[in-house]
Design brief:
Nucleotidyltransferase, domain 5, 6-stranded mixed β-sheet, 9 helices
Length: about 300
């Protein structure tokens, strides 16, 4: 879709390690969207501006401002946007301007959030948290943001109080694809009962997870454990261990899960198995709401 600068107000950008997504914004809503696989992990600092300009080339014919979140602001990104330390307000401060050669392009990057003890960092999730609170004013509780690195975030009085990251998604991919369990775990498919059983077993005895992981291989050899059931049990074991460790965050709290697709739904289901109700929020919607909140602080 071809747009002129007069037809849009600004451009929203979510730039992660593997993907780049952008939206042409007007009246608080996206007029159109575009994406590419030119994530931070594939670019040098000099490659960010050309990658963005290529994606948005049909959206402007004059000066335009982009608000960007995610790994674009990391040390290996376009420009390093220093972390804010918790506890800190959810609304951003100190957006960092990225260096550009095009006189018509201004890019402002939202800073990430850091925690000193225990050491932890986030980039991109802070914008989703910002968006969730913009859509749910006054909300307090714990937000779960599933992904390769799942975040559990305590939010109170409009501030990020503390958070903890779990590498559960990355562990699932590594163990299922690069250990002996690759011979036993299906690449797709699901068994809800197997997932729930593994989840509750691990919640009860999380210290036995290493042994239970190998039992997936042994049961495949000796009892013909179906690969789909093994996949669901692997997920249940890992998410169960995460939920056991994150219990101080979610126990007795109002909980919302932010994300898209099956992974976010899996966390809602896992909490339900434990008798804990959690609401779900669309990941793209809260990302856009967060970027819009940042834009509002720039626009004044």
């Amino acid at each position: 879709m071809t747009l002129t600068t007069a037809q849009i107000e600004w451009i929203a950008v979510d730039w992660g390690t593997s993907h780049l997504r952008a939206w042409a914004m007007a009246g608080g809503r996206p007029r159109c969207a575009a994406q590419s696989d030119r994530g931070m992990g594939k670019l040098t600092p000099a490659g960010f501006e050309p990658a963005l300009l290529e994606l948005i080339t049909d959206w402007h014919d004059g000066p335009v401002t982009a608000i960007a979140c995610g790994m674009v602001g990391s040390r290996q990104g376009w420009v390093e946007a220093p972390y804010k330390r918790v506890p800190c307000p959810v609304l951003p401060g100190g957006l960092v301007r990225a260096p550009t050669r095009s006189p018509d392009l201004t890019v402002l990057v939202i800073p990430g959030v850091a925690q000193d003890d225990p050491a932890d960092v986030m980039r991109g999730e802070e914008t989703q948290i910002m968006g969730f609170l913009a859509l749910n004013p006054g909300w307090e509780g714990v937000l779960c943001l599933p992904g390769s690195h799942t975040k559990w975030v305590h939010v109170s009085a409009g501030e990020i109080v503390s958070f903890q990251t779990f590498m559960t998604g990355e562990l699932f991919a590594a163990i299922g694809g690069h250990t002996v369990l690759r011979h036993s775990v299906a690449a797709s498919g699901w068994d809800g009962a197997a997932f729930a059983t593994a989840l509750t077993d691990t919640m009860a005895r999380p210290e036995r997870i290493a042994a239970r992981l190998f039992s997936l291989r042994a049961e495949a050899l000796l009892k013909a454990l179906p690969p789909v059931a093994a996949r669901a049990r692997l997920s249940g074991l890992l998410i169960g261990a995460e939920l056991a460790a994150a219990r101080p965050y979610w126990l007795g709290q109002q909980i919302a899960v932010i994300g898209d697709g099956t992974v976010a739904a899996l966390y809602v289901d896992a909490l339900a198995v434990l008798g804990v109700a959690a609401s779900a929020a669309d990941g793209e919607a809260v990302t856009l709401a967060g970027l819009s909140a940042a834009w509002a602080t720039v626009k004044g």
